[in-house]
Amino acid sequence: MKTKNLFFLLLSSSLFAQGFNYERDWATYFGGTNTYLTGIYEDSSSNISADVITTYLNPTGGNTPVSYYNQFVTSGSQTYIGNNPNNLYGKFSSPGNLLQAEYKASYLPTSRQATYFRDDLGNRYDIEHTITAYTALPSGVWLPNNNESTDVIFAKYDTNNNLLWKTYIPNTGESHNFEVDSNGNIYIVGYTKWQTLGDPGTFQQNFKLVYDVSGTLLPNTYIVKLNPQGQKLWATYTPSSSINGITVYENNLYIFGNNDIITTEATLSTPNTFQTAKGGQFISKFDGMTGQRIWGTYYGTPGNTLDAGLSDIKADETGVYVTGMTFGIMGGTYYATEGAYKSQTNDGIDMFITKFNLSGNRVWSTYIGTDGYDSYSGDRGLDIKNGKLLFTGLNQGNYNISTPGAFVSTKPNANSEDLFFGILNTNTGHPDFISYYGGTANNPSAAIDARCSFSKSSNGFYLYGATYRNNGFTSTNGYQQRIIYPPGVTMGRSGYIVKFNPKFLSTSEINSSQDFVLYNNPNNGNFILKGSVLNKEPHIISINDMSGKLIYSRNVQKSKEEHFNLEDQLPKGNYILSIKKSDKTLVKSFKLIIK
After folding, report:
1. What residue stretch is flagged as signal peptide (predicted)?
2. Rounded-to-10 torsion of CA 198, 203, 206, 212
3. Can you tell me whether residue 148 is helix, strand or coil?
4. Phi, psi of 273 (to 5 degrees)
5. Stretch 199-214: mean pLDDT
6. What is the rounded distance in angstroms from the CA atom of residue 254 to the CA atom of residue 490?
């Protein structure tokens, strides 16, 4: 074989890694009791913005002094306003030091306002709801006037908190689901009885007149796309009873939700997708430029609309990923594929994670759980980056869900609910790790909110949410290491933020990784792998397709050079070639291109 110029694409060295290869960088509570952290945002300097809703307390001994709330703000910043809930904003440096903290009014004269999202540029998006007086907004936006008494106000602010524009939008429900794409366009989903919302050329222009048993008109679900200036680009109805999640990748929109609004119909699937038979949930892909549906698939045991629920969705170039949980079918196997990490649910209450390809067909699916009660933790409990799928969940009972060597490998509270988090390999659906987070609880029955996101600037990730628990949630270098209670109060919920970073590779690991060379890439199936490390100990060479399916594997004894003649075994396409030690520790991965 003639040696050509070296050409290779190096994938993340931890693509198929096992074990907990991370360390907690810092962890802190944030805010007083009765706080709920709605989201975090990492800017280009790796600073972290946190948005929190703080509810005013009235303990048995009387009113909580304002000084209690003001201890959480930085000098010169806005202090607590009135005796109503406030919005608390915080900004932390990359090492976890508090840079700024201030309150913003939540109770406005005719509405309540909270921040629910920040885009990649740091612009913030607020919802004003519970509106008591609908007044005209400045013109130049989609809806300067409301159409329904359930409308809310959608507002955009810049990074300096300057208002850019406001528009009325139809009701967004409790979840306030919206996404912003890389061009600043905004996608919003919700419910409406407005019958002229849809645009020609979109998926469903016309409103469906559907009534419940009492004769009340049911709202239709909708999707609307706004440009960065708050003007409508298109809007469409959907035939679903609800839209519960949304994500954007490139120019496409992915949603999930529940049953058809007309329960006798089956209009949420399209041919040649995973499941055309009616089920309890659906997943759809829309063209973000036109509002037309590209495909749709039902997801759930055919004929059973109550077997499970979905909680979150993410997409990238590798596929579409959803999380959910089952609702009591003992011994069920529907949400697992062959070779899954967990192939069935024994007790009927398990979390699951599923990968679909970009054409709407299932690639893999696995249960995540024990013989106890295992559930998702809500929206924003899923994120994806560089072949890794980060997730959070809740585990109740006395069974251990963690993998060996995890950050917290034993269940902190027997027969009570505990938070867990993990990372799956997007190719295989098997975990790099699953770990608990937190310590023993002073009030084990109190709920935990657990969300997650990958860092944009590093290979680290964040856990965040709200908890009543005092142990195990912060680090010794954390800014606020305990929940601070007001006078007369001994229990309450506080926001928390945790940052994990990868452990650094040792010099020997780095040298080992850098030693390998792959010749003839792209190739026709015939290629050479060289590396002095191969001559030091046995290795396993494996080739997987991009869905994670194992195509080829070879045990290699001590040899500095290995020749592969796989022209008849590898069709044209892209593959992952992995080099592992005999204990299956990943050493290096390449993207192998067959032409």
Report:
1. 1-17
2. -110
3. coil
4. -110, 180
5. 98
6. 44
Distance, in Å, from the CA atom of 109 to the CA atom of 575, rounded to the nearest integer, reads 59
Query: Each residue of 270-292: pLDDT tens digit?
Result: 999 999 999 999 999 999 999 99
Confidence of residue 520 (pLDDT cuts 50, 70, 90): confident
SS3 at position 366: strand
CA atoms in the 13 A half-sphere facing the CB of 249: 16
- Residue 402 dihedral angles phi and psi, to the nearest 5°: -75, 160
Look at residue 555 and tell me if it is in a domain.
yes
Question: H-helix or E-strand containing 513?
Answer: helix 507-515
pLDDT digits 0-9 by tens, 403-455: 999 999 999 998 889 999 999 999 999 999 999 999 998 777 777 899 999 99
Query: Any idea how long the chain is?
Result: 595
563 part of a folded domain: yes
pTM of the entire structure? Answer: 0.81
| Domain total in the chain | 2
Do both 478 and 523 map to the same domain?
no
Let me know: does 255 contact 230? Beta carbons within 8 Å.
no
Residue 498 sits in the same domain as residue 562: no
Q: Domain of 63?
A: 18-113+456-503
Rg for the chain, CA atoms, rounded: 26
Mean pLDDT of 130-142: 96
Residue 166: closest CA among 124, 222, 120: 124
Give the Å distances, CA to CA, from 439 to 68, 416, 436: 26, 12, 9
What kind and span of H or E run contains 515? helix 507-515
User: What pLDDT, on the 0 to 100 scale, is given for residue 18?
Assistant: 54
Residues 91, 55 share a domain: yes
Cα angle, residue 310 at apex, residues 304 and 316 outer, rounded to 5°: 130
The conformation of residue 561, written as its DSSP 8-state character, comes to: E
Burial 62-92 (b: 16+ CB within 10 A, else e): eebeeebbeebbeeeeeebbeeebbbbbbbb
CA distance 410 to 391: 18
Residues 6+ apart with CB under 8 A from 371: 346, 347, 397, 399
Q: Give the end of a domain, one of 503, 538, 569.
A: 503
Contacts of 593 (CB under 8 A, 6+ apart): 9, 521, 522, 523, 574, 575
HSE toward the beta carbon, residue 485, CA cutoff 13 A: 11
**Same domain for 492 and 520:** no
Domain boundary pick from 481, 503, 525: 503
Is residue 177 situated within a structural domain? no
Same domain, 486 and 565: no
User: Quick check: is 119 in a domain?
Assistant: no
CA 394 to centroid of chain Cα atoms: 15
pLDDT in tens, 163-192: 999 999 999 877 778 999 999 999 999 999
Average the pLDDT over 293-310 and give the result.
Answer: 94
DSSP 400-435: --PPTT-SS-S-SSTTS-EEEEEEEETTT--EEEEE
Burial profile 130-166: b = 16 or more Cβ within 10 angstroms, e = fewer: ebeebeebeeebbbbebbeebbbbbbbbeeeeeeebb
Question: Cα(161)–Cα(240) distance, rounded to whole angstroms?
Answer: 36
Q: Can you read off the two tokens belonging to residue 482? A: 């305990």
